[in-house]
């Protein structure tokens, strides 16, 4: 075992155990063994797909009358993941070397993490500077995906990967509103002026009384508790209503209402127990 692999807490035995006996139920996930390693072993599109993204692919297939293709794509992707894992298991020492060799390629995973940390620290200092510019600084790494290729749609360059078609058959991804044919077109949203302010140019300036800045192209606000900056997930207010996220009215009861009222007030579920049923829309907070 090399000194570098020890520094990153990498071992062939751990990788083998992870991929043979500790694999998660959801197969389309990234895998980055070790600690602070410069590369992850498995990941990037099309490998990394959330359950929601796969569901959207099926919705698109249903809408176009070609759901069989969506099912076939899922099977092909599953086969690709299985093959990639088997390639790793067939060359565990090579897998460790591939991760360690990431030290010689830049920007690597460590560079990206360092850049984000530096940007966060710089942002905190800039908040007290009366001469700061209102324009966000560009990232030194552009729009590259730190965990897979030069952009969000680039295939993995890992030698353990094998070429395959994208899950949706194309690297040209439609917008969020185009992806889900079941998404209502209603533009109604709640007034967010009670917890945010915007300048004359429409750019958001404060969130819950705290200053806003852009980090990595996403709006962040300074937490009032001194815990650093935090991303704003709904800077434009609540998303449009979607009836497919609501349960029948008789599915809700006082116990469920109290559970969501508790998490809204305390930031965590009572006794760590999360209800199996989704909340009503009016029980959800969007100022996060």
Automatic annotation (TrEMBL):
Region (Disordered): 121-194
GO cellular component: nucleus
Naturally occurring in which organism (per UniProt): Cryomyces minteri
Alphabetical list of CDD domains matching this protein: AMO1_CTD (cd23954)
Composition bias, Polar residues: 121-185
Protein name per UniProt: Uncharacterized protein
């Amino acid at each position: 075992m090399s000194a570098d692999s020890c520094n990153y807490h990498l071992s062939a035995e751990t990788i083998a155990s992870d991929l043979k006996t500790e694999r998660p139920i959801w197969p389309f996930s990234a895998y980055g063994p070790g600690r602070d390693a410069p590369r992850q072993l498995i990941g990037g599109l099309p490998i990394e797909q959330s359950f929601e993204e796969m569901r959207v692919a099926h919705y698109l297939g249903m809408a176009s009358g070609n759901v069989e293709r969506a099912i076939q794509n899922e099977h092909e992707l599953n086969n690709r993941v299985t093959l990639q894992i088997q390639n790793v298991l067939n060359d565990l020492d090579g897998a460790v070397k591939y991760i360690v060799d990431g030290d010689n390629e830049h920007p690597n995973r460590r560079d990206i993490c360092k850049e984000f940390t530096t940007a966060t620290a710089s942002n905190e200092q800039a908040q007290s500077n009366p001469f700061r510019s209102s324009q966000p600084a560009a990232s030194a790494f552009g729009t590259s995906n730190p965990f897979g290729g030069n952009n969000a749609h680039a295939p993995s360059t890992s030698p353990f990967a094998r070429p395959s078609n994208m899950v949706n058959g194309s690297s040209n991804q439609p917008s969020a509103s185009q992806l889900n044919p079941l998404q209502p077109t209603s533009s109604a949203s709640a007034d967010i002026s009670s917890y945010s302010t915007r300048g004359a140019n429409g750019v958001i300036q404060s969130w819950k009384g705290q200053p806003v800045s852009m980090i990595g192209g996403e709006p962040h606000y300074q937490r009032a508790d001194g815990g650093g900056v935090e991303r704003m997930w709904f800077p434009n207010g609540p998303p449009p209503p979607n009836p497919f996220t609501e349960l029948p009215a008789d599915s809700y009861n006082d116990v469920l209402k109290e559970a969501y009222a508790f998490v809204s007030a305390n930031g965590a579920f009572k006794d760590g127990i999360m209800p199996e049923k989704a909340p009503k829309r009016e029980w959800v907070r969007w100022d996060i």
